[in-house]
Amino acid sequence: MKTSISFALTSLIALSACGQGPKSLEQQVRGKDPVNSKTLITEHKVLATSIKTGAEQTEKYLPLLKGKRVGMVVNPTSIIGKQTSVDSLLTLGVKIQKIFGPEHGFRGDASAGIKVDDAVDAKTGIKAVSLYGKHSTPTTEDLADVDIMVFDIQDVGVRFYTYINTLQHVMEACATNNKELLILDRPNPNGYLIDGPILDPKFKSGIGIQPIPMSHGLTIGEYAQMLNGEGWLKDKVKCKITIIKNANYNHDMEYTLPVKPSPNLNTQQSILLYPSTCLFEGIYLNHGRGTQFPFTIIGAPYLKGIYKFSYTPTGIKGMAETPIFKDQECYGIDLRKYDTSILRKEKKINIDWVIQLYKASPKKEDFFNSKLSNQTMPIERLVGVADFRQQIIDGKSEKEIRASWEPGLSAYKTMRKKYLLYN
């Protein structure tokens, strides 16, 4: 365990060398080579919205923290205005005993799947505990000097985004150790979307634990209620939770994240496409990792002559050090300007991109072969069912594929209603 590293909280808000606040995700890359440029120029888009996150409503939860030793599960999305919630609450006199960070680390600068060590924040001296890898659940020792835990992390509404797994592990630890959990809720940018097959338990993994569809249509607070209500926590324990709801929010509202939720979801476009394009992590294609546009461009060298659009992935520290097809020119599709209002209108994951790219591929035998690259996983872990791969190979239509998701998807939609906090 590392005992001291540069782990300053200010790095969460000083995202540029000049120490400015969190960057808007309305980003444009300018230059001769926009796909591979490493210089992001930020343009702030002022949105006329009255949505207030749970974290912003300090008057509702400060009394719950008064005089208590607080543990906080946070990452760079944990902000109040332009400050981290940790900094803000310290200023307000809250005694933060310990910080817990999920995948990508407390600062959010570790690539997907990279081990993050425990550390000490150089600015405050607060211990920061990593909750990723083998140490995914806080131990009794971790919680011994904590009276109450606070969970304040932005989710993006899909089963394979690991922060909901962190939530479950924290809830289980709190229940076992008789600790209360305060959840500061945040909007789901894909809250309108409830789609995909229900996870088959035999494909349970680090990117999918519970029988929910690919896009679950819940906020973190609502999902916590579901975990409790459906008896999904280990040994069917119940966690005592208090949820500070978002104000002036419902699931049909568009919500632009003020801070990227993880290194490779660095634009609003990537966040909105993610429920659909993350499927390409289980396909022998590059899905934009190794560029500044992950999850919005998709291609491979073997598609040359089939598609005109091309780009070359490179190693980018903190995002993708060894992307699939590194330093090779990839040909494929460019979704950076795709009209995401189509997804919102149809309320469906787009699986047609998978169907079309499979049809176009001259290497169909390799399309789903996850053994060809350590950057690719079996498609079943993402989709959550066994038959999707063969359905694509057999040329099944989208309608036929969707029919196989029933009646599970409809049953989930009915069950979900019990746990909604927002209309």
From TrEMBL:
Gene3D superfamilies: 3.90.1150.140, Uncharacterised protein PF07075, DUF1343 (3.40.50.12170). Residues 70-268 form the Peptidoglycan beta-N-acetylmuramidase NamZ N-terminal domain. Residues 272-422 form the Peptidoglycan beta-N-acetylmuramidase NamZ C-terminal domain. This is DUF1343 domain-containing protein. It comes from Pedobacter ginsengiterrae.
